[in-house]
Amino acid sequence: QVQLVESGGGLVQPGGSLRLSCAASGRGFSSRTMGWFRQAPEKEREFVTSISASGLSTSDARFVQGRFSVSRDNSKNTLYLQMNSLKPEDTATYYCAASPRSVTATDVEDYDSWGRGTQVTVSA
């Protein structure tokens, strides 16, 4: 199983940008679909975006609206999430996760390995 550690979160002003990273260890990163989820206080964890094992296909939640971009570097066992034009409603803990399913996997239950999350706060 793959172990995941997120980093790159922080406080950013509305309209700003952040780049999250997810470092993977263990076996299987390059063969797994990877996803980003987020969870705001008192809300359920929700899908943000996913990327296929090859990196050639991605799937985004509607609220992404072209503001976020997922990528991966299989040679470095690292997943990225570039977030631009951030809004206060993007404030949440962001989690990376690995799935044995295809890039269309958007449910929490589709993912079997999770990081501990990194906090993103968008506020003036």
Give an account of the 3D structure.
It is built from no helices and 11 strands. The chain has strands at residues 2-7, 10-12, 18-26, 33-39, 46-51, 58-60, 68-73, 78-83, 92-99, 113-114, 118-122. The strands form 2 sheets. Strands 2, 4, 5, 6, 9, 10 and 11 form a 7-stranded mixed sheet that branches. The chain has a 4-stranded antiparallel sheet with strand order 1-3-8-7, with no helix packed on it. β5 and β6 form a beta hairpin. The chain has 124 residues and is mostly beta strands.
The average pLDDT is 96
Choose one word for the global shape. globular
**Low-confidence spans: pLDDT under 50, at least 5 residues?**
none
Helical percentage: under 10%
Number of strands: 11
- Share of residues in strands: over 45%
Instruction: Report the end-to-end length measured between terminal Cα atoms.
Output: 40 Å
> Number of DSSP helices?
0
Helix/strand layout:
Elements: E1 2-7, E2 10-12, E3 18-26, E4 33-39, E5 46-51, E6 58-60, E7 68-73, E8 78-83, E9 92-99, E10 113-114, E11 118-122
Parallel strand pairs: 2-11
Antiparallel strand pairs: 1-3, 3-8, 4-5, 4-9, 5-6, 7-8, 9-10, 9-11
Task: Tag the structure with descriptive keywords.
mainly beta, about 50% strand, about 120 residues, globular
Structure summarized in a few sentences:
The protein has 124 residues and is mainly β. Helix content is 0%, strand content 49%. The protein has no helices and eleven strands.
